[in-house]
Amino acid sequence: MKLKVQPAQVQNNLLSEQLVWEVSRRRNFAIISHPDAGKTTLTEKLLLYGGAIQEAGAVKAKKAQRSATSDWMAMEQQRGISITSTVLQFEYREHLLNLLDTPGHQDFSEDTYRTLAAADNAVMLIDAAKGLETQTRKLFEVCRMRQLPIFTFINKLDRPSLTPLELIDEIEQELGLTTYVVNWSIGTGDQFRGVFDRRQQRIHLFQKTAAHGSKKAADTVISLGDPRLESLLEPELYHQLKEDLELLDGIGSELDIEAIHQGKLTPVFFGSAMNNFGVELFLEAFLDYALEPTAHESNQGEIPPTYPEFSGFVFKLQANMDPKHRDRVAFLRVCSGKFEKDMVVTHARTGKTIRLSHPQKLFAQDRETVEVAYAGDVVGLNNPGSFAISDTVCVGERVRYPDIPSFSPEMFAFLKNADPTKYKNFNKGVSELQEEGAIQILNSTDESKRDPILAAIGQLQFEVVQFRLLNEYSVETRLEILPYSVAQWVTDGWEALEKVGRLFNTFVAKDRWNRPVLLFKNQWNLEQIIADHPDLELSPIALPP
Ligand code: G4P
């Protein structure tokens, strides 16, 4: 009997069935928050409930030894802050979650922006006592720009807080984001009694956990109609709850998954990460409402995640994560097809062929070799200098994903090599850190000033560069801070600049591609130049050529 389908086709069909299944079970997300809102705590508790760790304790350890599970570098440990992004993968029920961890410190927002370019969903974590804070607002704007679905987790309800209505109101009014309350807080602070879960119409009673909830907590659940409820809650809380629920059902928004996926409606959760309270409820609902990996825009049109050919883009580079091996890793977000260890791919920018050997999955200090990965996953690739931020790698037809915009620097300083005999190490270190995207480097147009100019978003970026040059390249450096705070690229180049002649109060520098960049003392100076030279085309950011 003649076969209707040929073996190759059978294989293709099997692959596509597997692709569809693998993509549909994946959910990828990043947490955005202001430092101290509890991101480390929530991350850990998600891992605890996802079974990736058996016991949480990194926050405690962070306090004791100034180190945490997702911290790598010695400097992070000294300061107890999280600088580098890590990617944590865990399974929950039949789903596979990828948590793209973002640096908490505000000076590292550039890395966070890049990580958000690789994320499909964002979790906005808010401290219930403080409400919206600056870093959260900034990052929210990036999410909005990318139209990411946003889930809101309001944390620390066990402490004196704003009222749930005040918090909801702030999100709606200040961010212009419609909310859909998934669970509702019953009391706050000393009077925090639990949450009402609107999905199951049940009340989860709050219990403080021992040891900051290092182990999973017992969950006591009763229905709304349970006669015990009235005796379990103080009379005013009981009445408040009844009133609130009527209000929510009466004037609150409807659940609209489409609007969540478009980033227009945020599901809201209340809880206490430290006490493991509300974490599982959050996970359950998140899996139902979050966006699975979707199509990515490319120069060849939209590439769906189930497209059979593999493709992905680099969103972060990191050097020397393991001090024992002095290595470099490029983080690749898989966008389509099936990634396999040792596969041969095309590097879209250069057209070169590369074998992807030693791919890694990173879980804090531990590394595992990745055999396969699908859309929504992140793979760490050994990067012997071949990758830059935004590079696409693919199999088959050469696709290119759009460049991730880099943000306009606001602080500038000459970087001086304190020991001229170490000039080789100095140059190597500076060039590697620039390539990695740790910092932008500019140069003076004045030939007598050879020192590179560090261009950063925040002060801490300077310190990291100096620290890493010393630790990884054995070079001591000094900074000479420049009195500028605004950078603008001249979009039509040197000729345009020559035409306008001498500019006052302005520093003329060039970027790594020899394009002119003007540095201004302040916004006012910039506006003056714009007014005086209407023909000059300026832009606060520039994409790689
Ligand atoms: P971050 O990564 O966003 O910077 O925050 P992190 O998780 O480190 O949490 C910051 C502080 O907030 C920690 O306290 C942490 O224990 C506390 N925290 C996190 N979630 C909750 C919560 O649900 N309720 C309460 N009451 N606190 C919470 P710390 O001062 O660093 O240490 P410790 O007081 O826990 O010893």
TrEMBL record:
Residues that coordinate or bind GTP: 33-40, 101-105, 155-158
Protein keywords: Cytoplasm, GTP-binding, Nucleotide-binding, Protein biosynthesis
Gene Ontology biological process terms in this record: regulation of translational termination
Family matches, as CDD domains: RF3, RF3_II
Cell compartments where the protein resides: Cytoplasm
Domain of life: Bacteria
Family annotation (PROSITE patterns): G_TR_1, G_TR_2
Molecular function terms from GO: GTP binding; GTPase activity; translation release factor activity, codon nonspecific; translation release factor activity, codon specific
Family named by the database record: Belongs to the TRAFAC class translation factor GTPase superfamily. Classic translation factor GTPase family. PrfC subfamily.
Name under which the protein is recorded: Peptide chain release factor 3
Organism: Chroogloeocystis siderophila 5.2 s.c.1
